[in-house]
Design brief:
Elements lengths: L8 H21 L2 H12 L3 H17 L1 H11 L1 H19 L5 H18 L1 H11 L4 H54 L18 H9 L5 H5 L2 H30 L5 H22 L5 H20 L8 H27 L4 H30 L3 H20 L9 H4 L1
Helix pairs in contact: 1-5, 1-6, 1-7, 1-8, 2-3, 2-8, 3-6, 3-15, 4-5, 4-15, 5-6, 5-7, 5-8, 7-8, 7-15, 8-12, 8-14, 11-12, 11-14, 11-15, 11-16, 12-14, 13-14, 13-16, 15-16
Length: 415
């Protein structure tokens, strides 16, 4: 129970997790574009050689998601995050001293193990432990740390590179992670409210909630795999990530091909609206049907992509893409873990997030490659956008038909 007049400790957990994602994740993941040209000039590496390192690291983060999920279940969030922050900080420091291409690849792979450990798997698991009634709001706040971090840390890295060179920028990022994120995890993170004698949300459970919690059944991943809703959620992840992968890689080029002035600015604005989507839909999920919100998210996908289809004849429609796709971009990864927790329980939550994280990263890569191949084959993004529209329609259908899993019978009930 929270003491009257005191801020519930869970909100300190939210603040700390927001910063962990903003600095710990974003310093290593989103700043890669800042170093592309400096590394090419310093070592004569090609853009492809530099890009391969990031691609390997990004894929490894996704592939490690199920492993991180198991590690969180076994060792707890705090130990996993401490490993992640230490690894990311050291890798960034060492990147400031690299001399060879293989150093770059090895350090990015090393850093990827840390990024996976400070990413969404432990963060979402932690919030799910600390909040029940206000879980959506809390999840929206921490997930906005990713969007804000993408903007803030790229700016910090760019300014540092301009002032101290790329080596100094890498070292500064490493010091920020080791000097801020690591102590923050040590000082603030607690696994569960019960560790401090508190209730989730800081509010004692009612008699009805206590009874519901006692009778609640937490699915294992193996049990969930036999349920149709698990596969519908997997397809929703695939559909979202195909669109995200394609847009993340090609949005600026796509908008430029449609004669949009300042395409980079409009894509940045879309990323800004993703923060609004995380906060708005996260807060709404505590009060409104999650299924209804998921349908709205996919409706936003459709409006955003239709805006692109008709953009060539009506330039102002670019704002339809910026606002609606931007909101959907941030809303889906905020609402999705809430649906997973509600449908399958929290007993094995970190493992579920890890499995869906693996599905997401593979689909992201597929979406980026698919749009690239379609453009290379036709010289236009028109067909690619049509394919993404079909994917959005499928996502809308999946969101509409998703139901609740039937609780599997226990050995006692079967007997």
């Amino acid at each position: 129970m929270a003491r009257e007049g005191k801020v519930f400790y869970g909100w300190w957990i939210v603040a700390a997790t927001f910063i962990v994602l903003l600095i710990g994740l974003s310093s290593g993941f989103y700043t890669v574009s800042v170093f592309l040209e400096p590394l090419r000039r310093a070592f004569g590496w090609s853009a492809t050689q530099v890009s391969i390192g990031f691609t390997l690291a990004a894929l490894l983060v996704g592939l490690l998601s199920p492993v991180v999920g198991v590690a969180v279940a076994r060792f707890g969030v705090k130990k996993v995050q401490l490993y992640g922050a230490t690894t990311v900080g050291l890798a960034l420091l060492m990147l400031g001293s690299m001399q060879q291409l293989w150093h770059y690849y090895a350090l990015l792979i090393f850093m990827a193990t840390g990024l996976a450990s400070v990413s969404i798997v432990p963060s979402q698991t932690l919030i799910s432990h600390w909040f029940n009634r206000k879980r959506g709001m809390a999840m929206g706040i921490i997930m906005s740390g990713i969007g804000v971090g993408g903007m803030v840390m790229v700016f910090v890295a760019s300014q540092a590179a301009a002032s101290f060179g790329w080596r100094g920028a890498y070292r500064l990022l490493g010091l920020l992670v080791l000097g801020i994120v690591l102590p923050l995890i040590l000082a603030v993170v607690k696994e569960k409210p019960a560790d401090l004698g508190l209730d989730p949300d800081g509010i004692p459970l009612t008699a009805t909630e206590t009874q519901e919690r006692a009778s609640a059944f937490g699915f294992t991943v193996a049990q969930a795999f036999k349920c149709l809703p698990f596969h519908v959620l997997a397809f929703l992840t695939i559909f979202y990530s195909l669109i995200l992968g394609g847009m993340t890689q090609h949005a600026i080029a796509l908008l430029r091909s449609l004669s949009v002035d300042q395409a980079s600015l409009f894509w940045s604005l879309a990323l800004g609206f993703s923060v609004l989507g995380r906060l708005a839909f996260g807060g709404a999920a505590d009060r409104i049907s999650q299924k209804g919100l998921m349908i709205v998210i996919w409706g936003f996908h459709l409006i955003g992509l239709l805006s692109v289809v008709y953009l060539v004849d009506a330039a102002p429609l670019v704002w339809g893409f910026v606002i609606f796709y931007g909101c959907a971009l941030g809303a889906f990864p905020t609402l999705f873990p809430l649906m997973v927790g509600r449908k399958f329980g929290l007993d094995h939550f970190s493992k579920f997030v890890g499995v869906f994280g693996l599905i997401q990263i593979l689909s992201l890569a597929t979406g980026a490659i698919l749009l690239g191949r379609m453009y290379d084959a036709s010289g236009s993004y028109s067909g690619a956008v049509q394919v993404l529209l079909v994917v959005a329609v499928l996502g809308t259908i999946a969101a509409t038909v998703i139901g609740d899993p039937a609780r599997p019978k226990t050995s006692v009930e079967q007997g």
